[in-house]
Write a structure and sequence with these properties.
The complex is a heterodimer of chains A (128) and B (364). Chain A is an alpha+beta fold and 128 residues long. Helices cover 24% and strands 33% of the residues of chain A. The chains are: A alpha+beta (128), B alpha+beta (364).
Chain lengths: 128, 364
């Protein structure tokens, strides 16, 4: 149900290790809860962020939610396409709908995150 | 609300099973299980503006008043004029408490010389029912016998006419007729809540599910849920009972004074007359954001860091392309062009006159 190669947070962000960089987005569960996404406010390029810091905002027809950085690091790229095409998050949350990339990541913090099976169990516990 | 005494189970409309079968995301709305969306709020919104959608509105309450005396007694509760309302026409207004506060906004329709059909909302339905059925000449609460389907969109007339519901071609804006369709008796009105040309079908509860099926078989008709109903009405600046006003607000505060007939007598009028004389009350206004960010329900509205009001409804407006909202602001801040800040992130918004969306086909 959730891709195996990602780490997940309890706030429904995902992060993918791509070697020198780490890509961050929100999960298909988050997207389903939000519905049609209408606006994404991206983090500032070049910012140094800590784990759990509010770095982005995602708005849907129904609600606005904060997006937190899953780990500490340096924002080295943001997905500018989302400003004009926020629906990419609905269409492809693990691909074209990514939010930002981090480098200089605190790798030790990655181990505190959930793998796919743990995240799936976590979602099931939320839906009870 | 207290949960002592066990929870009250939400009710199902005649179309509940069909909503589930169509993949509708069902939610509890004022004690009714209704679809929030089917394919997505944005798509359903767009389809209603461009083509034709059907909405299950069976949660709404309906009342029947028969006889001159009953109509006269009810007239004392309704803010708009009924005595000059012709047969086949409806009028929008409100029922107030003796403090001039809004129990509900309602549509009163004269179906025959001595017969009124009154439509109110689900939230305050039990209070309105208790009030109207305990009059000296009591109304009949026909909510349990009456399902309601709203057929809304610029293609609604063409599609219904082609399907044999020919009465729609005779109905002007805010008109109504009793008729029959494929052997079923029904009341058809043309009131709308989306800004588009549209018709409401009031049908017998027990045979209602057939009508939903017939409608969905018509060319281009798609089901739509509460989510798009909300974005559509908000783009028109229409307030929602229980959300944008309740029994703490007068029609003056809710910017509904154009639906008050100051020449007639009605319950709560003295309070309104005094409030109008005194002035200086906070009022419901519309405001827009400069981009796709939306003001949200409960956001504080402020000027120079000082709170001046509160957002009651807010969303991204799919057809206008920017954030829109309704909310109450102090009397110094109601003029269009007034700049306000909304919410914790200080979203800049500007007071504007409604509707936000001006291309609606409702009067066409």
């Amino acid at each position: 149900m959730f891709p195996d190669d990602l780490y997940y947070t309890e706030d429904h962000e995902w992060i993918r290790d791509e070697g020198s960089e780490y890509v961050v987005g929100i999960t298909s569960y988050a997207v389903e809860q939000l519905g049609d996404i209408t606006y994404v406010e991206l983090p500032e390029l070049g910012a140094d962020v800590i784990r759990g810091e509010t770095v982005a905002t995602v708005e849907s027809v129904k609600a606005a939610s904060d997006v937190y950085s899953p780990v500490g690091g340096h924002i080295c790229e943001v997905n500018d396409f989302l400003e004009s095409r926020p629906e990419l998050v609905n269409e492809d949350p693990y691909g074209e709908g990514w939010f930002f990339k981090l480098d200089s990541v605190r790798v030790s913090e990655l181990n505190k995150l959930m793998k796919a099976d743990a995240y799936e169990a976590y979602i099931k516990s939320l839906e009870k | 609300m207290s949960d002592i005494g066990g929870e009250i189970l939400p009710q199902k409309t005649p179309f509940y099973d069909q909503h589930v079968a169509l993949g509708g995301k069902v939610v509890d709305f004022h004690g009714w299980l209704l679809p929030l969306q089917f394919r997505g709020i944005l798509e359903e919104h767009r389809h209603t503006r461009e083509s034709v959608s059907v909405f299950d509105c069976s949660h709404m309450a309906e009342f029947r008043l028969v006889g001159r005396d009953a109509i006269q007694e009810y007239d004392r509760l309704f803010t708009a004029n009924l005595t000059n309302l012709p047969v086949g026409r409806g009028r929008y207004g409100a029922i107030l408490n003796d403090q001039g506060r809004i129990l509900d906004d309602v549509i009163s329709i004269r179906l025959a010389e001595e017969e009124l059909f009154v439509v109110s909302n689900a939230g305050p339905a039990s209070r309105i029912s208790a009030l109207l059925t305990s009059l000296k000449h009591p109304a009949e609460d026909v909510s349990g016998l009456t399902a309601k389907i709203d057929v809304q969109g610029p293609r609604s007339r063409e599609v219904l006419e082609k399907a044999g519901l020919t009465v729609v071609s005779e109905l002007g804006y805010f008109s109504a007729r009793r008729t029959s369709w494929r052997g079923l008796p029904l009341v058809v009105t043309r009131m709308g809540y989306t800004g588009e040309l549209g018709f409401e079908l009031y049908i017998p509860w027990e045979s209602a599910s057939d009508v939903w099926t017939w409608l969905l078989q018509l060319d281009g008709v798609m089901p739509a849920g509460l989510g798009s109903r909300d974005t559509l009405r908000l783009e028109m600046g229409y307030p929602l009972s229980g959300q944008d006003f309740d029994d703490t607000k007068t029609p003056l505060e809710a910017s509904q004074s154009r639906f008050v007939d100051w020449e007639k007598d009605f319950v709560g009028k003295e309070v309104l007359v005094e409030m109008r004389r005194a002035g200086g009350y906070a009022q419901l206004v519309g405001f827009s954001a400069p981009d796709r960010r939306a003001p949200r329900t409960g956001y504080t509205l402020s000027v120079s860091g000082e709170p001046v009001g509160m957002v009651t409804s807010g969303t991204f407006g799919p057809s206008v392309g920017y954030g829109i909202g309704l909310g109450y602001v102090g009397s110094d801040f109601v003029t269009p062009g007034t700049r306000l800040m909304a919410g914790p992130k200080q979203l800049p918004v500007e007071v504007v006159s409604v509707p936000f969306y001006k291309q609606g086909t409702c009067r066409r």
